[in-house]
Structures are given as structure tokens and as C-alpha cells.
Design goal:
The protein has ten helices and eleven strands. Strands 1, 2, 3, 4, 5, 6, 7, 8, 9, 10 and 11 form an eleven-stranded mixed β-sheet that branches.
């Protein structure tokens, strides 16, 4: 089950949180529950309710695309990681990367494409079932380079953090077998991440002479019918890179997430139509979980490339027009371009959850 829309997870929010934010969320939830429980014995001071409500507001009130706490985290991480883009691509654990070329005609034929997605979903479900805690990351990239003809390259990276699984190589070998059925799979060693030599709030200049602008895809409609990548990449006149970072959740965490999502939707939604929509979505999720599926957190990114700031600005505008035409929402990550381009390279898999907001 895939979702790009913000929703409740345990802890609280679907988007990637830093360890400090996770602790803050859990502490706030525990403190709120303790205050409510103690009210049955003795009325707590009024300031206790104010503290809990204030922290909850920081986490949940969203001026724009992010909560207040998330905006603060963006500023802190921008300052802390301003000159450390390569460091985002280093994380302790085991990572394996392959190039994947699907069988001819797979993405053009709707039936073959559906079978491809089903096989990929089985691989994600297997990965989710190998650990009690979420942590395995599957990172898929697609690069389209436009010249006299358009050159396409696809990679799949799987990252398993240290200590999550006793024998990560065994799991990686099994996942490799799953992916091998999707097309021609070849192990590779990714090139080093290009260093950022210049930056603005809307683009980053790399040492290889290219300029990059990266957006997070915050929503895509169900009407895309699985052909999101062709809509964004094929038939375009500029270089583009597209990447999706999958974080499959273990079975127990998937069930708890579905339970809390349904409870939160019923408790905090007053719009009857929206309640019915949430109920229908919850029913679909429950049916999928009963059949053995896993919930998957998704982060998707689109990078446009150019040889000058003007070219990359024009390419960004063209990408926005294409996204609007297909009802796809883009967040261009203003002020974070110095590190955002990493997420559309094969090095995006081992980045920690929450590195890109």
C-alpha cells in the first residue's frame, strides 16, 4: 500500500522525522495521556494542559506544506549541513546497488506494467517482513539524458542499517532474486556524489558543471494508473532524474499504523464527506493488510538539470507545467537545494530518514 499524503504514523507523522523529533512526539503523547489520566484523581495545573497543547501545535499546525516544528528543523538542518552534502550519502549498514532494465515493452503495456508493480510490491513486502522495526530502504532512480536521442538509466539500491538484521547479505540476495525477475539486473558501484560548488535557494551548481533543481513530489492522483514515470520523464526536452525512496513497514507496525490512522480520522474529522472518504480508504487498507500486504512510506523526488542557472530555471518551469497538467504536486524545497539533488542519485538509499524535508 503506497501513500504520499501526510498521515498518522506511530510516532505521529508519516514524513521522516529526526531522532529528536521522534522523542519529542513520543514524550508529548505520553505526557498528554498522563495528564488526562491524572485528572481522574486530582485536577492538574492549567499550565500542564498549555504545555501539551503548545507542543502538539508545534508538531501539527502547518503554515504551508510543513508544521511549525518542521520549518524550524529545516532551518537548523540547512545551517548544520550546508557544506556536508557528501555526508548525507554515508550511513553505517549494508548497501547494494543494481542497474535494472525492465523487459522490452513493460512500461508501455498496461498489463505488463501492472504485473511489474505487483512483483515489485511482493519484494517490498518480503523486505518488510525481515525485521521487527522499520529501517530497510529501497531506493529506485530513473535518469533521462536528452541528446540526439534520449538515454535512460535505472538503478535500484537496497540499504539495511547495522544491527537491524543478523544476516543482511542473506536478505539482500533474496531481494536481488526478486528484482532479477523484473528485467536485466546488473550489480554496480555508484560514482561519488558530485560536490556542490555554488548554490542559491532554487538551484545547486555541481563540480561536474551541471546545475540541478530538485522538488519533492507531495501528491499524485490515482488516475496516473502506474505510469507516473513516463508522464514526468518521457518526451521531455531536458535532462531529468526521478527517484522514489520506499520504507516498507513490518507487519505489526503496519497494523498499528492502520489502526491509529482510522482512529485519528474518526476523531478529528468533522466533514461527513471526508469521514466517508477516510472510511473507504481505511477499508481498502484493511483488506490489503488481511491479504498480507505491508504499508510503505514513500518519498518521491524530481530533479531537473541544466548547464546554467537560466537553463535549470526554464527546466524547472517546464516540469511545473507538466506536473500541473497531470495533477501532480511539487514542492521545490526552497533553501535546501544544496543537498536535495542527492536523493535522485543511487546514493539516496542510505540517507537517514528525515534528511530531506
Amino acid at each position: 500500500m503506497y501513500s504520499l499524503t501526510p498521515g498518522y504514523r506511530v510516532p505521529a507523522i508519516q514524513r521522516g522525522l529526526s531522532p529528536a523529533e521522534i522523542v519529542l512526539t513520543k514524550t508529548n503523547a505520553g505526557a498528554g495521556a498522563a495528564i488526562l489520566a491524572s485528572a481522574m484523581l486530582q485536577t492538574p495545573p492549567i499550565w500542564a494542559f498549555g504545555v501539551v497543547a503548545g507542543i502538539a501545535s508545534l508538531i501539527n499546525v502547518a503554515p504551508g506544506r510543513r508544521s511549525i516544528a518542521r520549518w524550524a528543523a529545516v532551518g537548523v538542518r540547512h545551517w548544520r549541513e550546508r557544506g556536508s552534502t557528501p555526508g548525507l550519502a554515508t550511513s553505517t549498514g549494508t548497501t547494494r546497488t543494481w542497474t535494472l532494465y525492465p523487459h522490452h515493452g513493460t512500461m508501455q503495456d498496461p498489463y505488463q506494467r501492472a504485473g511489474f508493480h505487483e512483483a515489485f510490491a511482493r519484494a517490498l513486502t518480503f523486505a518488510a517482513g525481515q525485521a521487527r522495526n522499520a529501517g530497510i530502504q529501497v531506493h529506485v532512480t530513473h535518469h533521462a539524458t536528452v541528446d540526439d536521442y534520449t538515454d535512460h538509466a535505472q538503478t535500484i539500491s537496497v540499504h539495511i542499517p547495522n544491527g537491524l538484521i543478523g544476516q543482511p547479505e542473506r536478505v539482500l540476495s533474496t531481494i536481488e532474486g526478486e528484482f532479477a525477475s523484473l528485467g536485466a539486473l546488473t550489480p554496480i558501484t555508484p560514482e561519488p556524489v558530485p560536490a556542490v560548488v555554488d548554490r542559491s535557494s532554487t538551484w545547486a551548481a555541481l563540480e561536474d558543471g551541471h546545475y540541478a533543481a530538485t522538488a519533492r513530489i507531495t501528491a499524485w492522483p490515482s488516475e496516473t494508473d502506474g505510469d507516473l514515470m513516463p508522464k514526468l520523464l518521457l518526451g521531455q526536452g531536458d535532462d531529468r532524474s526521478f527517484a522514489v525512496l520506499y520504507r516498507p513497514l513490518p507487519a505489526g507496525q503496519s497494523r498499528r499504523s492502520a489502526k491509529w490512522t482510522e482512529a485519528a480520522g474518526a476523531a478529528f474529522t468533522t466533514d461527513k464527506i471526508k469521514q466517508d472518504t477516510n472510511e473507504q480508504a481505511s477499508g481498502t487498507t484493511r483488506d490489503a493488510l488481511v491479504q498480507g500486504a505491508s504499508l510503505v512510506d514513500i518519498d518521491a523526488y524530481l530533479t531537473v538539470w541544466g548547464d546554467s542557472p537560466e537553463e535549470v530555471t526554464d527546466a524547472r518551469w517546464d516540469a511545473s507545467l507538466t506536473a500541473d497538467r497531470h495533477r501532480i504536486s511539487l514542492d521545490w524545497l526552497t533553501g535546501q537545494q544544496h543537498r536535495a539533488h542527492v536523493m535522485t542519485t543511487p546514493h539516496g538509499a542510505p540517507t537517514r530518514k528525515g534528511a530531506i524535508l
